[in-house]
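Worked example 3. Consider a protein that binds tryptophan.
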Amino acid sequence: MANKKRLFSGVQSSGTLHIGNYFGALRQWKDMQEEFDCVFSIVDYHALTSVKDPATLHTNTLNAFKDILALGIDPAKSIVFQQSQVQEHPELAWILECVVPVAMLELGHAYKDKVAKGLDANAGLFNYPLLMAADILLYDTDVVPVGEDQRQHIEYTREAAAKFNLAYGPTFKEPQERIMKEVAIVPGTDGKKMSKSYGNTIPLFGTKEEIAKAVMSIVTDSSGDRPENVYAIHKLLHPEERLAQLYESNKGKYKVLKEALIEDIDAFVAPMREKRSSITDADVVRVAKEGSDRARAIASAKMQEVRKKVGATL
Ligand code: TRP
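Given these inputs, the predicted complex is written out as structure tokens:
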């Protein structure tokens, strides 16, 4: 434990996960727990910048916990907690807001993109990177696994840490991003990259019927013996040697091949799907509470140091 590096990741509920998310990035998570001392936070206060319906925020948070637990994040190995339950996060964000210039936040890509898409430009959305910096800095994080779109936020985190350290003395570790390269490009049912916004997904925790419906809608062109869009997904599940015979003996029989793919996806996702459906809301509440207690113990010690450094003590 002691010599492992600390990894921190914030998880936004992004709705229904699909097999593209899984083979693209999520399958790496489970193993990161062996290499790093991991802290995972369901970042509901970040979500609050855009989710305005309380029931939706609540359900999304429960679902995000269920998703990551089903993916193999183990509360016995990692700290898993709800951001809003550890008050040191918004508290440190405020202090960082007092050392970072507005001009830096005005250059934020994520802020500019969201405003361009018509999201209301609330102050929370503007300050979002500093709440994220607080998430990371409270835990003396070494490594933050993120997608390319989050690179700037990690740069801002280092910048905020450096500005604070310069003003008040060494306090925060400057973290490194670990850009999660997509380990596989997963094609959707139309052959384009699988993505929620294209509506071409196969759900990760879907029922067999839902999987079947999506697979049957895979676009095949009748020019070749092998339906390439079917094959491209199939080979994520089995080595090509293993598929060779199936595809050889069923040349042109697209329906048979799709049915084989349905069975294989179903067999692959079934354990995760079963695990997810066995997790109750009460389980989540218990895991989250335990996780918040562990997170708070670390965060409150750090904040005590920070309050002292800035002079907020008597
Ligand atoms: N902004 C991140 C995203 O949209 C979520 C996030 C919040 C995060 N706090 C974090 C990610 C801390 C890594 C570390 O994906």
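Take a moment to read the result before moving on. The CA atoms of residues 191 and 229 lie 6 Å apart. Residues 205-276 form one domain.
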